[in-house]
Amino acid sequence: MNIQSNPETLAQAIPETMKAVVCHGPRDYRLEQVPVPKPGPGEVLVKVILAGVCASDGKCYDGAPKIWGSNDGQGRYIEPPITVGHEFVAQVVQFGEGAEGRDGLKVGDHVCSEQIVPCGECLYCKEGLYWLCEPHDIYGFHQRTPGSWAEYMVFPRKALNYKLPEGMDPEHGVFVEPLGCAVHTINRAELRFNDTVVIAGCGSLGLGMVAAARMKNPKRLIALDLHPARLDLAKRCGADMTINPREEDAVAKVKELTGGYGCDVYVEATGAPRAVTQGLDMIRKRGRFIEFSVFREAVTADWSIIGDTKELDIKGVHLSPYAYETAIRMIAEGRLPMDEIITHKLPLEEFELGIQMVIDGSSSLKVTLRP
After folding, report:
1. Alpha carbon of residue 355 to chain centroid
2. Helical H runs in 250-343?
3. Contacts of residue 10, Cβ cutoff 8 Å, sequence gap at least 6
4. Residues 6 or more apart from 260 whose CB is under 8 A from it?
5. Nearest 5°: phi and psi at 8?
6. What is the pTM of this model?
7. How far apart are CA 8 and CA 351, in angstroms?
8. What are residue 23's phi and psi, to 5 degrees?
9. Radius of gyration over every alpha carbon of the chain, rounded to an integer in angstroms
10. Chunked in runs of 10, what are the mean pLDDT values of the chain (371 residues)?
11. d(Cα 243, Cα 57) in Å, to the nearest integer?
């Protein structure tokens, strides 16, 4: 780990060029030498300490239509060529004109920034729904917001930035973005004290959801996953019990535990279509179904279960609004076994290995890259 603390050293050490992973197309990601960005008015230049590899990065690499649109480019979200990456922790090295002191930052501080840079002008931003901003400039996807798989990156003038507290391991800050998504998911679930809550999927995000749900103290918190090691971690994050659907009928077990009714809240965090239909079968009438995942393919389900059969509340979840401060506090307070959740720290040159590990998912939780 090479984290410098001397502000003068940081400022003097800024090179002219840097390594960056640039996306040119599906399965066409290249490690390139590019100019170090210059911070403009109101902007902050940071040196990346660690960058996370998200499940959506794997889907983007594979050419998911949700990101790349149809064959003729219609509906495309990503704007290549672009430096990828939206999960990161970094260190402030330089301010653009008028930016010094913004967000309480100074050179040498360890920081993170929300993955979306809102425009502040569209309908959603004016309504306070900045995470649904219509231009939707997320780091690593749009030309206005190059990402974190690089040695340096710039926080734009309208970025939402956060300083990490003293005493917190800076490298754990790479998990703030996914944990923020987990916190927002649990906030959307509106948990109650007598709820039986099921969280399906104990990847790094699901584990964050378990930890966040535990802070709400529902009556019963159940974690589902196909990997025993992940279920062990779920217990350490606060799950009351775990179920492996490979080993027992998860729907039958939850109904047995609830007098035949089913769970009050079902959180889908697997990205597997089967987990959606499983949840619709498992949940009680008038239950709350919370959907977080991004799917590779369309999901088919009996829509009548939602209305005529069970009168369910279905809530989607996007990004991590108003959740970064809580996520930072959770990590700083040691509410998650971070050194076991961050399973891999690969050099930036091994980005393709990192992507494949995330796509495979069998031997990793949070995979990170060190520029």
Report:
1. 15
2. 250-257, 273-282, 324-332, 338-341
3. 4, 47, 91, 92, 93, 94, 107, 108
4. none
5. -65, -40
6. 0.95
7. 31
8. -85, 125
9. 21
10. 62 90 98 98 98 95 91 85 98 96 94 98 98 98 98 98 97 98 98 98 97 98 97 98 98 98 98 95 98 87 96 98 98 97 98 96 95 97
11. 28
Which residue shows structure tokens 């995979």?
A: 367
Q: DSSP letter string over 228-252? A: HHHHHHHHHHT-SEEE-TTTS-HHH
Give the separation between CA 119 and CA 100, rounded to whole angstroms. Answer: 21
Quick one: tokens of 18? 């840097």
Query: Would you say 157 and 42 are in contact if contact means Cβ atoms under 8 Å apart?
Result: yes
Q: CATH code for 7-163+337-370?
A: 3.90.180.10
Which amino acid is located at 312 in the chain?
A: L
- Residue written as tokens 């990997």? 227
Domain extents in the chain:
7-163+337-370, 179-316
**Helical spans, DSSP H, in 85-227:** 123-126, 176-189, 204-216
CATH homologous superfamily, domain 179-316:
NAD(P)-binding Rossmann-like Domain (3.40.50.720)
pLDDT at residue 235, as a whole number? 98
- pLDDT tens, 169-186? 999 999 999 999 999 999
